[in-house]
Design a protein that fits this description.
2 strands, single chain, 173 residues
Length: 173
């Protein structure tokens, strides 16, 4: 698996660079606690839904950036164009994604999640949140509040620098 392994750039202020590295290491440890719960449930859910990991990744990309073309989705999922095209065809046939003609270029199709695709991802999101809840429920309320406050501050800073990758449907009024 190729995951970008890029530490903060050398232009990053020294204090921020070291703090980011320390936080990254801490998040890795936290991820290890959570991932065992999530991956068990995720594998069962993918099997039940008859979804491949690539299809799940494509659904997440379509949620994050509605209106992608097959070519753009191919690049984001690291699939060849023919493989991405086949994947999209399967998602459309199964009612998980929709294709619409691009009004600016009639030869191009824009992709989006269908209502069923959104429901599938909402179920995955719920399972992910429940894994966090099960893991954290055994901790003290004071530790949980301190973690919440710190993470909320980080998210506020991140959102000020870059928009969220996709809206959280639970946060929309």
């Amino acid at each position: 698996m190729t995951v970008p392994d890029t530490p903060p750039s050398q232009d990053t202020p020294a204090g921020s660079r070291e703090a980011a590295i320390a936080l990254g290491q801490t998040m890795k440890q936290l991820h290890r606690y959570i991932s065992s719960h999530v991956m068990q449930g995720l594998q069962a859910e993918l099997t039940d839904l008859d979804l491949s990991f690539s299809q799940m990744t494509a659904l997440h990309q379509l949620r994050a950036t509605p209106g992608l073309t097959v070519t753009e989705l191919s690049a984001r999922t690291h699939l060849s164009l023919p493989a991405a095209s086949h994947l999209v065809e399967r998602l459309v046939q199964r009612g998980l994604a929709d294709r619409q003609e691009n009004p600016d270029n009639r030869r191009e199709k824009r992709l989006s999640l269908s209502a069923r695709g959104q429901a599938v991802l909402a179920g995955m999101d719920s399972a992910f949140v429940n894994a966090y809840i099960r893991t954290f429920a055994q901790l003290s309320p004071q530790s949980l509040q301190a973690a919440h406050d710190s993470l909320a501050a980080l998210l506020t800073d991140l959102e000020a620098q870059q928009p969220a990758p996709c809206p959280d449907p639970q946060e929309t009024p």
